[in-house]
Amino acid sequence: MENKAAGKVITCRAAVARGPGLPLAIEEVQVDPPQGTEVRVKILFTSICHTDLSAWKGENEAERVYPRILGHEATGVIESVGEGVTGLKEGDHVVPIFHGECGECAYCLRPETNACKKFGIDPMRKTMPSDGSVRFWSKDRSEPIFHFLNTSTFSEYTVMESSCIVKIDRRFPLQKLCIVSCGVSTGVGAVWNTADVQAGQKVAIFGLGAVGLAVAAGARARGASQIIGVDINPNKFDKGKNMGITDFINSGQLQESLSEEIVRISGGGVDYSFECSGNLQALREAFLSTHNGWGLTVMLGVHVKPDTLPIHPMELFSGRRVEGCIFGGFKGKTQLPDFAVQCVKGAVDLDQFITHELPFEWINEGLQLLVDGKSLRCVLSL
């Protein structure tokens, strides 16, 4: 069937952020057709991540760009493609990725990194990478509306670079797979790719949100012998147990040093710790909780303040290490399709991460669930 909208402006609904902490406004916006190597996608499902929450609150002053369409975890169907797009076509089922892969730059060509010079994550970028212009406009086209994290999925239609689009099997459940756009991939990938946890090893997880619990699921899948979960919210412990966590510590009620307690119950320190909270003190405790000589701390939490690492240089001579991890170390376009297959086959139970499902127009209620710590992932149906 002929696509009569191809090459034309589409008017649709979007949730527009107009100020820090203000309720997202469901508005009619105009979405321009894709240019060059871009793709326009009809979003079917999108979920709410803590990164969206942080941007909505305006926690990082440099990110306070308005009006803006947030959102970066989603699934959808390609509506149309630009002239220079290869490997993708109208009707393909896709997962957007905020951390793109052009496949050509010096970073993409190196196996030891998943960075991309052209389309890697850039929270400050507010326009299209190709030409610095916008693809969203107010209904009367009097006001440009800015992009977010290469994706902007809180909209019925969005435009993205083809390097930020991953094609998936049409038989896969789109509602579930929207959460592999960020949270689940970040946590599981940190275990499988960055740390490469092996059977019998011990891990500690600081912060039991969706990313932290994805770390637990990844560690269990790898056969970790001990998975210690740390959080100040005891309501997360039952969920964590289902994800594979073997020991829990409520850091808000602990009288002694958190790292000393982890060293004690792990018998000398864990092999790997994962900092998922974006808290500097938690990062230090995560570092000290690992075993002398070989312990590795993987940093996943987003630190919005311009603070430095709480580690004295001499402490690194103990053999402990710290490494940052973006998008679980996955090269999105080349490795995410296989990860999606593994999730569908049951290596990671995606259903456990989806705690709420709401219609798109209830997006502010979904944000509040995350603020209140009542949800892991709220999936919105468009």
UniProtKB/TrEMBL annotation:
<keyword id="KW-0479">Metal-binding</keyword>
<dbReference type="InterPro" id="IPR002328">
    <property type="entry name" value="ADH_Zn_CS"/>
</dbReference>
<dbReference type="GO" id="GO:0004022">
    <property type="term" value="F:alcohol dehydrogenase (NAD+) activity"/>
</dbReference>
<dbReference type="InterPro" id="IPR036291">
    <property type="entry name" value="NAD(P)-bd_dom_sf"/>
</dbReference>
<dbReference type="GO" id="GO:0051903">
    <property type="term" value="F:S-(hydroxymethyl)glutathione dehydrogenase [NAD(P)+] activity"/>
</dbReference>
<keyword id="KW-0862">Zinc</keyword>
<dbReference type="GO" id="GO:0008270">
    <property type="term" value="F:zinc ion binding"/>
</dbReference>
<dbReference type="GO" id="GO:0005829">
    <property type="term" value="C:cytosol"/>
</dbReference>
<comment type="similarity">
    <text>Belongs to the zinc-containing alcohol dehydrogenase family. Class-III subfamily.</text>
</comment>
<dbReference type="GO" id="GO:0046294">
    <property type="term" value="P:formaldehyde catabolic process"/>
</dbReference>
<feature type="domain" description="Alcohol dehydrogenase-like C-terminal">
    <location>
        <begin position="210"/>
        <end position="333"/>
    </location>
</feature>
<comment type="subunit">
    <text>Homodimer.</text>
</comment>
<feature type="domain" description="Alcohol dehydrogenase-like N-terminal">
    <location>
        <begin position="37"/>
        <end position="168"/>
    </location>
</feature>
<dbReference type="InterPro" id="IPR013149">
    <property type="entry name" value="ADH-like_C"/>
</dbReference>
<keyword id="KW-0520">NAD</keyword>
<dbReference type="Pfam" id="PF00107">
    <property type="entry name" value="ADH_zinc_N"/>
</dbReference>
<protein>
    <recommendedName>
        <fullName>alcohol dehydrogenase</fullName>
        <ecNumber>1.1.1.1</ecNumber>
    </recommendedName>
</protein>
<dbReference type="Pfam" id="PF08240">
    <property type="entry name" value="ADH_N"/>
</dbReference>
<dbReference type="InterPro" id="IPR011032">
    <property type="entry name" value="GroES-like_sf"/>
</dbReference>
<dbReference type="InterPro" id="IPR013154">
    <property type="entry name" value="ADH-like_N"/>
</dbReference>
<keyword id="KW-0560">Oxidoreductase</keyword>
